[in-house]
Structures are given as C-alpha cells and as structure tokens.
Amino acid sequence: MSTVTVTAADGGSFSAYVAKPSATPTAAVVVIQEIFGVNQVMRDLTDAYAAQGYLAICPDLFWRIEPGIDITDKTEAEWQKAFDLFGKFDVDLGVKDLIATLDHVRGMDGCNGKAGSVGYCLGGKLAYLMATRSDADANVSFYGVGLDELIGEADRISRPYLCHVAEKDGFVPPEAQAQFVPVLEANSKATVHVYAGQDHAFARVGGQHYDKASADLANRRTTEFFRTHLA
C-alpha cells in the first residue's frame, strides 16, 4: 500500500491511495470515496479489491477544497464537516479528476490496460457518471445519490454498469428512485439491484445501517461483475 500523485487535466495534482495485488499484470479498479474522504473505510475497500487481484486506486477528490480529508461517520461534527465538503464539491471537476485517475492507473506498472470504477454514496453518483462520461470498462454504484437528476445521461452508457439501490435510502427517496430505476432497467448495458428494506450505506462496515447479509450479496454481485467484465 502506498500513495501516488495524479496530475489533474486542468493543472494541479492530487494524491491517491494505491493497493497492489499479489500478481500482475491485471486490471485496475478506481475506488471512489464517500463524503468522508479517503478514510479507513475507503482504504480497507481499496485493499479488498487488491486482494481480489486488481490494481486498486482511491483518489482524494476533495483536494480542491481541502486536501487529505480523513474523517468518520461517528460524530455530529464529522457529519457536518462531510456535508459542508459535499456542498462545496464540484461534480463535473470530480469526474474529470476520476478520468485523470483512470488514465494514470492504466499507465502504471502492473496494469494490463483494463480498468473499471466502483463508488459509494457520493462515489456511487460519480461511478454512474464514469459510466456515462468515461471509457472505463465497467462501473459499479453503491447507493449513489442524485442519480434522478442525471438520468438524462443514461443513454450514454456504453459499457457494463451495475447499480446497487437501497430501497429505504434516506437520501434517495422513493420518488427519486422512480425517476432513475426504470430508465436504467431498460438499458441493456445496465443492471439494477434493489435491496429491500435497506437504508443508505448498508454496505459500510461499522456504519449505522450496515446489514451484513445485504452487504455480502452486493459485494458478491460486484465481484462477479468485475470478474466478468474486467477479466
């Protein structure tokens, strides 16, 4: 495990946490952060994708606001900080930084040129936009927020996309889900799974809404999806 520096398309640079698999060359996975920065949860996820055999990289997407954010979901102050960062975050620039990360990891020693993305919460939204705006080979969203506002881009999805939706997501109400779930289900490149009774971040280990059975199912589906499309 280490960090690398990625050059942004519009100048400047940002750090990214990297976890390498035991054997290379292999495909890469860009792991996209929640609103808490590149914290222990994200580093553990990045390590887990490396353990599955991928060159995994998790970029610091808040670098334009405040580099090095590493907070948790355990205190009210941290939640307030996270929502403040979320409010200041420029989604379009974030996607460009992810595309820069994708290009960077494809050029790293040990990458065979194939690369996908997987994101959680804010990262789930960004993974959807990687499916619509980038040439990533496969993309996965875990309980992405705001997809209803971006569903007009769905016809741009040209590579396999997997979307995990929490039925009782407090940040993605039923009326929002009704806007994007049917559109994605009608797209031949997209697969949608709705997890009955689950709330936002049901796959965040140690989180308030963590549900092991649903998390294990979503993770298993993600593993199979990447094995199919990044092999």
TrEMBL record:
<dbReference type="InterPro" id="IPR029058">
    <property type="entry name" value="AB_hydrolase_fold"/>
</dbReference>
<dbReference type="Pfam" id="PF01738">
    <property type="entry name" value="DLH"/>
</dbReference>
<dbReference type="InterPro" id="IPR051049">
    <property type="entry name" value="Dienelactone_hydrolase-like"/>
</dbReference>
<dbReference type="InterPro" id="IPR002925">
    <property type="entry name" value="Dienelactn_hydro"/>
</dbReference>
<protein>
    <submittedName>
        <fullName>Carboxymethylenebutenolidase</fullName>
    </submittedName>
</protein>
<dbReference type="GO" id="GO:0016787">
    <property type="term" value="F:hydrolase activity"/>
</dbReference>
<feature type="domain" description="Dienelactone hydrolase">
    <location>
        <begin position="14"/>
        <end position="229"/>
    </location>
</feature>
